[in-house]
Design brief:
With 351 residues, the chain is an alpha/beta fold. The protein is built from twelve helices and twelve strands. It has a seven-stranded parallel β-sheet with strand order 3-2-1-4-5-6-7.
């Protein structure tokens, strides 16, 4: 039985790369034959891998300067994911993905927002529409980001009904799919399937010390980070390729090891990123967010950590009890690991 995972993996988004790596490595480690299908989505290419000129000449010149930094990150991220030897031997696109039926016995819709049609440009390959009727179809921790419209749901519903097993990453999405009369389970982000020690071993040692890290910066996050840094005698480091700002250090990690190193060495983190929040927990950092969307709300509720929200802990007095958090993460990890292994084992027996 050979499994092929459809997910976002070939973009300069560190969280996407790490979740793709984690799911495939976990499945392989449990003795199942599995690849990440090296699939190229046209809309993802336009969003993530192409330069978009601006009409204003001055702003366009500045944008080109920043794009050169992004190009370096694209190369480094691509080199990283390929170095893991997790990708399929062949590359596929929308016109050729049906030929993957000759290679794989089963397909898995992986994690990240692969079911967000605004992100992938209505590419239903991520719903396994190309897979033949006799192929096993699974979804592990897939995410939709925002709710489907009624029009989208008309196209999505028949595809969801073809799955043999569905699990999603957000609690609210799990409830929405169940409301459609389709069986669904709530699963953790794949990065949690891997022990933190593995992520720490990948992290690149950095010369920067004693700092507060800001990721997905906003004015509110930067202001709060500066407030925290001042009271704890720390520097402020922002992940950004923007114009240098007085009083803060801006860095631009080009691959997962550099990105992981920034989180591992930070004293505290202020982030609106879903994976930024997760890795702050894995590395046991004090962390705050101003993102109150369903993705982050779901994980905060699962860990009973509402005070990581800046609208609740305005004075930054929260201190995470990592003994309790560690135990809760272990429980969530174990439950999700058992679900995946049991699902794959049952499918293998049926075949």
């Amino acid at each position: 039985m050979k499994y092929g995972i459809l997910t976002y993996h070939n973009i300069p988004n560190i969280g996407a790369i790490l979740q793709a790596q984690a799911l495939c490595e976990f499945i392989r480690a449990r003795g199942f034959d599995c690849d990440i299908v090296d699939y190229t989505c046209d809309n993802i290419v336009k969003r993530e891998l192409e330069f978009h000129p601006l009409s204003n000449p001055l702003r366009n010149c500045l944008s080109k300067y920043y794009w050169r930094k992004t190009e370096k990150k694209i190369v480094r991220c691509n080199k990283y994911i390929r170095s893991l030897h997790l990708l399929s031997a062949r590359k596929y696109n929308r016109n050729t993905i049906s030929e993957a039926n000759k290679v794989y016995d089963a397909f898995i819709s992986g994690s990240d927002m692969i079911w967000n049609l605004n992100v992938n440009g209505d590419d239903y390959s991520y719903f396994l529409d190309f897979a033949k009727s006799d192929k096993i179809k699974l979804a592990f921790a897939s995410s939709i980001g925002t709710k489907w419209t009624d029009e989208e749901l008309q196209k999505v519903l028949p595809l969801l009904k073809r799955y043999h097993s569905i699990s999603v990453r957000e609690k609210s999405t799990n409830e929405d799919i169940k409301a459609l009369g389709i069986s669904s389970s709530h699963l953790c982000d794949p990065t949690l399937l891997i022990e933190p020690a593995k992520w720490k071993s990948i992290a690149k040692p950095l010369p920067i010390k004693k700092y507060v890290l800001v990721y997905f910066p906003t004015k509110e996050l930067i202001k709060k980070a500066e407030q925290y840094a001042k009271s704890h005698s720390l520097a402020v480091v922002i992940i950004s390729q923007g114009i240098p700002t007085f009083g803060v250090k801006k860095v631009w990690p080009k691959d997962p090891p550099e990105w992981l190193g920034l989180f591992l060495n930070a004293d505290a983190v202020f982030t609106n990123s879903f994976h930024g929040i997760l890795f702050s927990f894995y590395f046991e950092k004090q962390v705050w967010t101003a993102n109150y969307g369903n993705r982050i709300t779901s994980i905060l509720e699962s860990l009973n950590l509402p005070n990581c929200r800046l609208d609740i802990d305005k004075n930054l007095t929260n201190s995470i009890d990592y003994k309790h958090c560690r135990e809760r993460l272990f429980q969530i990890r174990e439950k999700s690991q058992e679900y995946i292994v049991k699902t794959l084992a049952q499918i293998k027996v049926k075949k």
